[in-house]
Amino acid sequence: MTTLPPPRPLVSLRDLRVELGGRPILRSITANIGRGNVTALIGLNGSGKTTLLRTLVNEYPHKGTVQFHCGHDHSRPYPEAVGYVPQRLTLDARLPLTVGDFLALTLSRRPLFLGISKKVRAKSQAMLERVGVPECLNVPVEGLSGGQLQRVLLALALEPQPELLLLDEPAAGIDFKDQKKFYELISSINRETGVTVLLVSHDLNMVQAHAHDVLCLRDGAIQCQGHPTEILTPINMQLVFGAEMHMFPHRSGA
Ligand SMILES: Nc1ncnc2c1ncn2[C@@H]1O[C@H](COP(=O)(O)OP(=O)(O)OP(=O)(O)O)[C@@H](O)[C@H]1O
Ligand SMILES: [Mg+2]
């Protein structure tokens, strides 16, 4: 029996180095982000997870190589679209905008004071339905719950359909039940669209349940990478987090 070679990664990082404020933050990262996979990026606070995501969206200069292999023949050098849900929303939440206005600002070229076209309104409604918050269209952004806001941001990141979806602690601050639903939503979007997902998470049980691959950072360097069952072991977690970790799988229906 012949063994097929692993599929070409969507992103290859080779000796990636990033310095910020004169300090090395990412140190010689070499890793592949598997095409069509959900890859979880884990590590302690300050280990460089956000820096890695921001480097992928070209926010930080780097040394070494970041190579994309996009398109049908994998030869296109950049993704047509990258969806990004940042760790923190820099938008002033006190802006008197409804979710519908907020989405229209991204979807429409015409100024908001001319009103929102029916087409854009319908599109916004469909985007919210896709992420399970159809009731939020006329809600002020500042009135959204943490879980609703994350879903609205996810809806934006999915438009236009990205080849790569970067999610930086997308479920932080959401209660356990909504968190579980949020991860299930990401998994179903990954299955249905084949989008490659790189997500930062501190919830190792969710990582175990939903990721195909885990990338562990410690002090800006890769400590280990592999399938969750190989990686999320007490010994590895001791190496990554420097503390004893025990995994308690979430019970279904909890
Ligand atoms: N713009 C910047 N200038 C200087 N240092 C920075 C900058 N951004 C991040 N850093 C530093 O880089 C290191 C990694 O930060 P980063 O935000 O990538 O960590 P993280 O793994 O995402 O942490 P957390 O889990 O807390 O979100 C930290 O020490 C941080 O202080
Ligand atoms: Mg971070």
Q: What this model shows, in words?
A:
- With 254 residues, the protein is an alpha/beta fold.
- It folds into 2 domains: 1-81 and 162-254, P-loop containing nucleotide triphosphate hydrolases (Rossmann fold), CATH 3.40.50; 91-159, no CATH class.
- It has helices at 49-56, 99-107, 118-130, 146-157, 176-193, 204-210, 228-231, 234-241, and strands at 11-20, 23-33, 38-42, 63-68, 82-85, 164-168, 196-200, 213-218, 221-226.
- The strands form 2 sheets. It has a 6-stranded mixed sheet, with helices on both faces. A 3-stranded antiparallel sheet has the order 2-1-4, with helices on one face.
- Strand 6, helix 5 (176-193) and strand 7 form a beta-alpha-beta unit.
- The longest helix has 18 residues, at 176-193.
- The structure holds adenosine-5'-triphosphate and magnesium ion.
- Magnesium ion is lined by residues 49-50, 87, 168.
Secondary structure tally: strands:
9
Distinct ligands, ions and cofactors found in the model:
adenosine-5'-triphosphate, magnesium ion
Query: Tally the helices: what do you get?
Result: 8
Query: How much of the residues is beta strand, in percent?
Result: 15-25%
Q: Taking all residues together, what is the mean pLDDT?
A: 90
Helix content: 25-40%
The CATH class of the largest domain: Alpha Beta
Low-confidence runs (pLDDT<50, min 5 residues)? none
**Arrangement of strands in the largest sheet:** 5-6-7-3-8-9
| Name of the CATH superfamily of the largest domain | P-loop containing nucleotide triphosphate hydrolases
Secondary-structure-derived class: alpha/beta
Q: SSE order in H/E notation?
A: EEEHEEHHHEHEHEEHH
Largest sheet: 6 strands, mixed
Terminal Cα separation, in Å?
42 Å
Total tally of structural domains: 2
